[in-house]
Each structure stands twice: as structure tokens, then as C-alpha cells.
Amino acid sequence: MGNDNMKVITIMTRKGGAGKTTLTRALVSAAMSQGKKCIVYDSDPQQALARWARKLEIDDPLFTIEHLTVADELAAKTDEAWEEGSTDFIFVDTIGAAGSWADDLAAASDALVVPMMLSDDDMEITKDTFNWYVGLKDRTDDPKALPSFRVVLSGVPAKQSVAETEVEERAVKSFPVIPEYFMSRKQHKDASSYGFLHKIAEERRQSRYGLVRVHAKHFDEAVEEAASILNDILEAS
Ligand SMILES: Nc1ncnc2c1ncn2[C@@H]1O[C@H](COP(=O)(O)OP(=O)(O)OP(=O)(O)O)[C@@H](O)[C@H]1O
Ligand SMILES: [Mg+2]
Predict the structure, then answer these.
(1) Ligand nearest to the CA of 97
(2) Of the residues 31, 115, 125, 145, which has the maximum number of CB atoms within 10 A of its CB?
(3) What's residue 143's pLDDT?
(4) Mean pLDDT, all residues of the chain
(5) Looking at residue 145, what is its pLDDT?
(6) What is the predicted pLDDT for the residue at 27?
(7) Which residues line ligand 1 at a C-beta cut-off of 6 Å?
(8) How many separate helices (H) and strands (E) can be counted in the chain?
(9) Shortest-distance atom of ligand 1 to CA 16
(10) Which residues constitute the domain of residue 99?
(11) Strands (E), the chain
């Protein structure tokens, strides 16, 4: 019995350090907090996410992570997961560079998610990534079968500089931007040291120290934000 609700979400941008791995981890956390089963393919040779999971010995029935070395294997892997029927989401984290592998990942994805920080460099390289996607539409036999493409403004500070606001305005005009922003939060740094956001929230809630329990709400907020981004992605796909 195939799971027709299964979604394949690939987080990519040609820009290094735009927040791909952080966003992937947050989206997976949001999905898992809703009881959804996630498979993550780490296709970045640096293996940041796979190494993170190994180092922290993350062990959760809702979560599996594997290295994806050959991009065109994604299609077979998603077919397998679809047939097996119990996976809700497949997330793919990628390297911050261009390559023909991107075409193969796109062909097997329902949604492409492109994090972009509010800088001129990010703006320029997001343009290149968007142009690649537009070109993909021209190169493919069936443009309707292509995944959706959405930019997520990432690492957005609570107080933006004039220059950041200017980049934000240009991005919103130039690309399909998801309404919910991926804000800069120190909770994401904690997640990279300690584990999934929703798990940290859970642990903090159970602490016998009132001061620690209060922190849980900041992690809950980060999970809620990611859940809202995930919803926007699903609506677009
Ligand atoms: N929303 C956020 N809040 C706080 N810090 C963030 C956020 N997003 C990203 N960062 C920080 O920015 C840096 C780059 O993020 P990340 O590693 O996720 O980017 P990446 O696109 O995966 O990079 P690479 O191209 O090297 O794989 C990291 O130090 C990360 O902690
Ligand atoms: Mg990364």
C-alpha cells in the first residue's frame, strides 16, 4: 500500500551557509513533534546533519538519516519508502553549490525549499538558483511534474538593519517567498549541540528547576515557526 500523502522536500541553494542544515533540522523537528515519520537523506559530502545525529546518538522511531551519495538514487529510495507506506516526509539536505545532481534531486522531489539570509550575496546566488529552476522547466518534458520552488528568508534578525530590509523587499518582489520567516534564534544553536528542538523543549519542561522550565517556551516557539514554514511548503507543493 503506497502512502500517497508522503512528501519529498529538498532544501537547496547554491549559496553556502544560507541555513540549509539548520532549516532541515527544524522542519524535521516540527514534523516529528506532530508524530510524523521522517527519513532524511544527507547529500552534502560534509555530512553535517548525519554527523550531528551520530554524535548525539539520536534514536527515535520517527527518524532515520542516511547518506545519499548518488543524487539519481533519490527516485528509487522515495519509491521504496512510498511502497513501504509508513513514511510521511523525506527531507534532503544538500551541498551549497551548483551541480547536475540538483536536476536529479528536483526530479524526485515534491518541493524545493531555498533558504536565503538577508544579504546581497545571498540575494545574488538565490537569483542563480531561481534561474536554474526556471531553466529546469524549459528542459523538462513535463513541467507540471516539477516540484514547487519556495524561498525561505532565513536567520532573520528581530531587528533588521536598513540594508537587510532592502534585501527583504527585493527578495519578496523577485521570488516566491514563504510568508513565515525562519528567524535567527539561539535555540537553533542549542539544537546543533543538544538535539531536536522539540526534544529539548520536552526536557526543559520536565526539569525540576523553574528557571529551566521557562526556557521550554522558546523552543516551542521555534518548533511552531518551523511547523508554520512546513505548512506553507506543503500548501505550495
Ligand atoms: N535561524 C537561525 N538562527 C540562528 N542561527 C542560524 C539560523 N540559520 C542558520 N544559522 C547559523 O548559520 C550558520 C550556517 O547555517 P547552516 O550550517 O544551517 O547553513 P548551510 O546552508 O547548511 O551551510 P553549508 O552550505 O555549509 O551546508 C550556522 O552557524 C547556523 O547555526
Ligand atoms: Mg549544511
Answers:
(1) 1
(2) 115
(3) 82
(4) 96
(5) 87
(6) 98
(7) 16-22, 44, 48, 96, 154-155, 182, 184-185, 188-189, 192
(8) 9, 7
(9) 25
(10) 7-185+228-236
(11) 7-11, 38-42, 63-67, 89-93, 111-116, 148-156, 182-183
